[in-house]
Write a sequence for this structure.
């Protein structure tokens, strides 16, 4: 599935819609160049999950936790030196826990990711505010999420 978003408002609406769909244990992988809008989309997904705190990118801490209708674990693995750092954080407790994981730069840790996940590859569009999101994934939850997105 491919979605074209024209501006911040459409990005916010899409993120909120996705956040409303997400359930306990879901993994959302965000890939894209610097400035593509991964953190902006994460903030909107957080709104859909009921997060009221200000969401920032955990670039130097690797993970931030937020509370909403579910726990939200926001990973940014851009500066990850090696996967051992994730082992030190106990990543599997997050990935296989009851919250929702949103992982920026997920392609860097693809080997560690659970099989069931949704992947959003974000690219800048023709216009400065346009974003193109290619949605792929693996597993039953991915299929369910796609159906929900298409329905709404």
């Amino acid at each position: 599935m491919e979605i074209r978003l024209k501006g911040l408002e459409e990005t916010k609406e899409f993120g909120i819609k996705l956040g409303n769909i997400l359930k306990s244990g879901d993994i959302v992988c965000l890939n894209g160049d610097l400035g593509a809008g991964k953190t902006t989309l994460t903030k909107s997904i957080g709104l859909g999950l009921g997060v009221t705190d200000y969401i920032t990118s955990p670039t130097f801490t690797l993970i931030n936790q937020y509370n909403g209708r579910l726990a939200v674990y926001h990973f940014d693995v851009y500066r990850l030196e090696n996967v051992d750092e994730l082992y030190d954080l106990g990543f599997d407790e997050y990935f296989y826990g009851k919250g929702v994981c949103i992982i920026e730069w997920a392609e860097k840790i693809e080997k560690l990711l659970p099989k069931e996940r949704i992947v959003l590859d974000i690219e800048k569009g023709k216009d400065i505010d346009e974003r193109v999101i290619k949605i792929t994934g693996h597993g039953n939850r991915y299929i369910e999420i796609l159906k929900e997105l298409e329905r709404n």
